[in-house]
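Risk register update: the risk of archive-format incompatibility is retired. Evidence:
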Amino acid sequence: MIATKKNSQAWEGAKTRYRLNETDIQMTKELRMTPKSLIKNIPVPNQKRKATVKVWIRNLYGEMFGRGLTVNPALSKALRKSMKQEDAIVSKRWVDEEDLPF
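Archived output:
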């Protein structure tokens, strides 16, 4: 119980320190990395060619799994409702090919 709390605090610290989002954290966990292992890729001012931690994680993930991580965002009720209304409008405008004059 204490280890999980300490680990979650470490991930929260890494999230703010390295400016990561939930997708980046998930990629890092799938790469079996720890927040402590991210320290080795912090670019210092004289290393201008070195990528940021966020870019480094995404590149490693792409090399390892050959794809990017896709996240399907949850749609709000208002957005789902507007999408249904748009579908209804499109279906009302449907014209059969036999009804066309040409």
